[in-house]
Design brief:
Blueprint: H1 8-15, H2 23-56, H3 64-108, H4 112-116, H5 119-161, H6 163-169, H7 172-210, H8 212-217, H9 221-268
Length: 269
């Protein structure tokens, strides 16, 4: 079984072979992300053209306005759909291959595997952790590819418009990268702790389901209830911390972007 505490590179090296048959989905997702990224600078460029030549000079026919705007957003929507579909196809195909390999390992494994791991832990790994891990890996790749391509496309467009002010905005990147690095490490640590807490909670339930006669015979209902409540409370706190860490990224990044945008506007004026 793949341990959740392995380094990122080691986990990627173990998971990558299961996604070899998913290459068509990744190719489709990359193409869709590339087209979608190209539409990002095309939207302000089109609006600039419509505002300059449509309202000021009135040299554009009225029918071109809805055709251009609707057509551009239709292309953007189709590209987003292709990217999402390609990633979903790749994730589910890789997840199927991974589950088959892991279940085959369970069938052929030595008895020591079942003594080192609880039944609930093995079940949780095969049913939930594989799905969550595959989805997180694939959709993290989507965010990385999509955001990177969008950043490059927008940066090229900004450099075309005004390279002096665009270079000034570049000072924002180190701060954003540092914040993302710190929050990503915290999020990874909380996710690993959440997986362990989920396994522990499942083990408590498994013990009480399988040994319910012993629990009632010794009157241990209150003890087991307190044990279950303690693990559930820890899992709840970890879930809240994960949401807090995820939610902090966007507002902090937006504040930094607003500061850079304000400085650009002040300098431009």
């Amino acid at each position: 079984m793949t341990s959740p505490v392995l380094p990122l590179k080691a986990r990627l090296a173990r998971i990558a072979p299961f996604f070899r048959t998913s290459r068509p989905g990744f190719v489709l997702a990359i193409v869709g992300s590339l087209v979608g990224a190209l539409t990002e600078p095309a939207i302000p460029a089109l609006l600039k053209l419509l505002l300059d030549r449509g309202f000021a000079d009135r040299h554009l026919s009225l029918w071109l306005v809805p055709v251009a705007i609707i057509g551009l957003f239709a292309i953007r929507g189709l590209a987003g759909f292709l990217a999402q579909y390609g990633l979903a196809w790749a994730a589910n195909r890789g997840m199927l291959t991974m589950r088959e390999a892991m279940f085959k390992r369970v069938l052929d494994s030595e008895p020591a595997l079942f003594t080192r791991n609880t039944a609930s832990s093995l079940i949780n790994t095969l049913t939930y952790e594989v799905q969550n891990g595959a989805n997180q890996l694939v959709y993290s790749l989507q965010s990385l590819v999509k955001d990177s391509l969008t950043l490059v496309a927008m940066l090229v467009y900004l450099l075309y418009l005004n390279w002096q002010l665009s270079m000034f905005v570049g000072v924002l990147f180190p701060a954003v990268a540092w914040i993302m690095r710190v929050l990503s490490k915290r999020l990874h640590r909380l996710t690993v702790e959440g997986q362990h807490a989920t396994d522990e909670l499942a083990y408590v339930v498994e013990e009480n389901v399988l040994a319910w006669r012993i629990v009632r015979l010794h009157g241990a209902e209150r003890v087991e209830g307190a044990r279950f409540a303690a693990v559930s409370g820890r899992l709840r706190r970890l879930a809240v911390k994960i949401v807090v860490s995820q939610s902090m990224m966007t507002p902090i990044t937006q504040v930094l972007a607003a500061a850079a945008l304000s400085a650009v506007i002040v300098i431009a004026i």
